[in-house]
């Protein structure tokens, strides 16, 4: 029998080869990540450290100093120190959230996933690459900018009564720039704002700034914006090892959530449907207002109907958009435009009663309250009998409000 003897590499050479291989892999990895920095970091669950979240802020200020990034909070963040970042709070694959303070206000400084397709402002305004850097001093450029911002906002929200709501195109820009006075914008300010409004949460927050149940926005720098910091309702949840929040505090939050559901039926953008109702997306502000802190998935009726209508279907189960649900028309194999769920029903189901098996805000109530609340809550939370008959929203709202207010008085 013949045995072929493989020649072994000498130990030293083996070590050199391995080291070289590791170096090549490392360099390759570095090149890929440096090309694709922003995309890669959102592709999976990262920790704040892995995300190099703080480095993002250092880069933000470097870009501001170089004149490549703008916004009405850049100076406070990068130069005057009036915006102070303290901690990295959340670091999901889509979002980075820091906590901090801005002029004595507790804030979060957050950014969300960049949309897949973003048109460059230069292209939108048809400015050639060979042109000098455009500035707001150029009146033509500024006028075009104001028009395109207005146009983008109304298309993004499918809200074509925008002009009636605010008066003029220029006023949309003033709203987006709020609470800072709109002075002369640099090109960096304009292009950063343009990139920011591709993420529609910022637009909605600013257009709805007069609403009680929408958190205040304090401005932005690059793709980060500062919002009033609140205590999330997720923090109210209790486990066998964690005691529930005091009943009175839960009662107040529940009452204000009812108020929120009412306010959302009539807003400057018409009726709003919140399709991602969960304790982590709502919070209690310092002045005890309950606010919707994550409004990516909150839509006006027309936009909601357009979303629901799109897919083809064979059964009702295929006609939902997160929490917002319509029915399948099996003759046409098309989801109906009519939304079956409503905000109050989902709030009852996923916040007041329970959320993914976790006890809800009104669970573990004192026994006398529980007896009164249980039937109303289970009627409210039920997925059957949707859509509710006319008047049912008002009826359930009143019943819950009466029980909770009476409880509040007697506690
Ligand atoms: N204004 C805020 N105050 C306090 N915490 C916030 C605020 N905004 C966001 N957070 C925290 O960050 C988390 C993620 O933010 P969110 O806007 O819900 O992003 P996502 O769209 O990724 O869910 C929230 O669940 C909450 O814990
Ligand atoms: Mg969220």
UniProtKB/TrEMBL annotation:
InterPro entries: FAM69_kinase_dom, FAM69_N, Kinase-like_dom_sf. Residues 193-382 form the FAM69 protein-kinase domain. It is a single-pass type II membrane protein. Residues 47-158 form the FAM69 N-terminal domain. Keywords: Disulfide bond, Endoplasmic reticulum, Membrane, Signal-anchor, Transmembrane, Transmembrane helix. The chain crosses the membrane at residues 12-32. It is found in: Endoplasmic reticulum membrane. It holds the Pfam family PIP49_N. The keyword Transport does not apply. GO terms for cellular component: endoplasmic reticulum membrane. The keyword Nucleus does not apply. Belongs to the DIPK family. PANTHER family: DIVERGENT PROTEIN KINASE DOMAIN 1C, DIVERGENT PROTEIN KINASE DOMAIN 1C-RELATED. This is FAM69 N-terminal domain-containing protein. It comes from Pocillopora damicornis. The lineage of its organism: Eukaryota, Metazoa, Cnidaria, Anthozoa, Hexacorallia.
């Amino acid at each position: 029998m013949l045995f072929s003897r493989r020649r072994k590499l000498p130990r030293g050479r083996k070590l050199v080869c391995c080291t070289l291989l590791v170096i090549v892999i490392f360099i390759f990895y570095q090149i890929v990540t440096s090309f694709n920095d922003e995309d890669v970091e959102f592709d999976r669950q990262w920790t704040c450290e892995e995300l190099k979240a703080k480095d993002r802020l250092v880069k933000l200020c470097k870009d501001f100093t170089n004149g490549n990034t703008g916004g009405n909070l850049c100076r406070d963040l990068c130069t005057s120190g009036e915006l102070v970042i303290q901690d990295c709070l959340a670091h999901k694959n889509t979002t980075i959230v820091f906590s901090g303070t801005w002029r004595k206000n507790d804030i979060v400084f957050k950014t969300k996933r960049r949309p897949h397709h973003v048109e460059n402002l230069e292209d939108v305004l048809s400015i050639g690459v060979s042109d000098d850097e455009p500035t707001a001093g150029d009146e033509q450029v500024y006028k075009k900018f104001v028009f395109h911002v207005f146009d983008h906002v109304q298309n993004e929200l499918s809200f074509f009564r925008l002009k009636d709501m605010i008066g003029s195109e220029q006023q949309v820009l003033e709203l987006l720039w709020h609470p800072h006075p709109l002075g002369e914008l640099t090109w960096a300010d304009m292009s950063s704002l343009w990139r920011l409004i591709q993420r529609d949460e910022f637009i909605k927050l600013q257009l709805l700034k007069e609403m009680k149940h929408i958190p205040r926005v304090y401005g932005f720098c690059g793709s980060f914006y500062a919002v009033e910091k609140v205590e999330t309702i997720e923090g109210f949840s209790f486990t066998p090892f964690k005691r529930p929040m005091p009943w009175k505090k839960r009662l107040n939050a529940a009452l204000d959530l009812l108020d929120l559901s009412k306010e959302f039926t009539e807003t400057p953008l018409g009726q709003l449907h919140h399709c991602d109702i969960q304790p982590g997306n709502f919070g209690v502000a310092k002045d005890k207002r309950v606010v919707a802190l994550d409004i990516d998935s909150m839509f006006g009726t027309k936009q909601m109907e357009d979303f629901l209508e799109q897919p083809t279907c064979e059964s009702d189960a295929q006609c939902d958009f997160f929490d917002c649900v319509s029915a399948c028309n099996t003759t046409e194999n098309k989801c109906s435009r009519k939304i079956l769920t409503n905000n109050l029903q989902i709030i009852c189901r996923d916040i007041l009663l329970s959320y993914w098996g976790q006890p809800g805000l009104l669970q573990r109530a004192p026994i006398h309250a529980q007896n009164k609340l249980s039937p109303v809550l289970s009627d409210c939370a039920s997925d059957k009998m949707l859509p509710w008959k006319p008047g049912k929203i008002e009826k359930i709202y009143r019943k819950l409000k009466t029980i909770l207010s009476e409880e509040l008085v007697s506690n």
